[in-house]
Design a protein that fits this description.
single chain, 420 residues, alpha/beta, nine-stranded mixed sheet, 12 helices
């Protein structure tokens, strides 16, 4: 059955993928009375949902392809210490992704993609608030201070320009322009090397691993089956239902299936018309002790290093490494992040790192996620959010659940057609 034909509202749905997007979709389907089974080949939050920075920042959620990316140059992206890294021996699939990414890194295409994000960004917090009101115990924390810090005013001008473009596109965000001394007064963990800063208002943050596990607990408590170690190898639309087969031999039939497999979305989605390359944009992180744990997120945009307070430690994250999701953790990336942050943070034990981690953000060439019905009206895609799967995951789940149960596509999802 094609996506243009109507199918009855599903009563039993399988969600493939137990990250933020998949679990949020499960939760909001449950709100609409749907029986849900969640399948994941590893476990809850095993991919990009665990070790990321945990920022909920709709104010600066923008398309990843942008003109500034092109200014890095070939020499920079081939350097292991570069914030954006491409291995010198790229495979044909990665080269296809990079060609598309480059085509979309223009001002005109950025503006078009930004207009697609704005309606989602405006509603992002409403979905988190619904989860909290519905019993998800983990908290979202107001970012009482959210500092983007720079060595110089010249470096800061890049983000000021971006904020101006965001505002011109129709998205509101409040911020203050600070000197280095003013920034240190707000956030004493910044070093004397910081000479300029911007303080963003109205953003939040979470402990992503804790939050996604709490969301899984809520989904399970409301009656869902959550099966880990379930590697889904086949999904077939049989005309009156969808058959889901795992590598262990499990074979079940459902009314509909949601593919929320992140970087691996194309593996199951291709036969249903999902042709967009979903490339692993790998990020790295670790946690360190601090003399003074910041009261909110700290961002060093010039170095592409993101810091988030998690209890008595600071999570330090960075890198956009375009390579295979299965490649092992590369310690050169960890060291590059630590050395980039060292002169900018005061009182950080960057040599006492714990929880070193790499995870794969699912990136698309045009910077837009893939959300909605595929060529089959019983098979739905939910992925490709790049760096914004945590911020937009709950709203994605809410809107997709609406589409699946009503047959009507919410206007916010129109630009994210998986078949584009």
């Amino acid at each position: 059955m094609s996506a243009t034909e109507s199918a009855p509202a599903p009563q039993r749905v399988a969600i493939v993928g137990a990250g933020m997007v998949g679990l949020a979709t499960a939760w909001f389907l449950q709100e609409r009375g749907v029986e849900v089974t969640v399948l994941d080949r590893t476990g809850v939050a095993a991919g990009a949902s665990w070790g990321n920075a945990g920022w909920l920042t709709p104010g600066i959620t923008t398309p990843l392809p942008e003109p500034a990316v092109l200014r890095y140059g070939l020499r920079a992206v081939l350097s292991p210490s570069s914030p954006v890294y491409v291995p010198p021996r790229a495979d044909p699939r990665l080269l296809r992704f990079l060609a598309g990414f480059t085509r979309h890194s223009t001002a005109a295409k950025w503006r078009t993609a930004m207009r697609a994000y704005i309606p989602m960004n405006r509603r992002a917090f409403e979905a988190f608030d619904a989860l909290g009101a519905g019993g998800v115990a983990a908290m979202t924390h107001e970012a009482k201070s959210f500092i983007a810090a720079y060595r110089t005013e010249a470096e800061r001008s890049v983000l000021l320009d971006e904020l101006a473009h965001i505002h011109a596109a129709g998205q509101e965000i409040e911020f203050d322009v600070l000197t280095g001394a003013e920034a240190r007064e707000v956030e004493p963990s910044l070093s004397e090397n910081i000479g300029a800063a911007i303080r963003l208002h109205g953003q939040r943050f979470i402990n992503p691993g804790e939050y996604v596990h709490s969301l899984a607990g809520s989904v399970r408590a409301r009656g869902a089956s959550l099966v880990t170690g379930a590697d889904v190898v086949d999904v077939r639309d049989e005309g009156t239902g969808v058959r889901v087969v795992t590598s262990a031999g499990a074979d079940e039939r459902y009314d509909a299936v949601v593919l929320a497999t992140g970087t691996w979305l194309g593996e199951l989605g291709r036969r249903f018309g999902v042709r967009t390359v979903v490339q692993a944009g790998r990020g790295y992180s670790f946690s360190v002790k601090m003399e003074h744990v910041p009261s909110g997120p700290v961002y060093f945009p010039a170095q592409r290093v993101a810091c988030t307070p998690l209890g008595d430690r600071l999570r330090v994250a960075g890198m956009m490494e375009f390579r295979s999701a299965e490649a092992p953790l590369d310690r050169r990336r960890i060291l590059a992040i630590a050395e980039a942050a060292r002169p900018l943070l005061r009182g950080a034990d960057l040599d006492g790192r714990v929880d070193e981690w790499v995870g794969s953000r699912p990136c698309t060439p045009d910077g837009l996620p893939l959300i909605g019905a595929t060529r089959s009206s019983r098979v739905f895609a939910a992925g490709g959010h790049g760096m914004w799967g945590i911020t937009l995951g709950p709203l994605t789940g809410s809107l997709l659940a609406e589409e699946m149960t009503t047959g009507r596509r919410p206007t916010e999802l129109q630009p994210f057609n998986p078949l584009r």
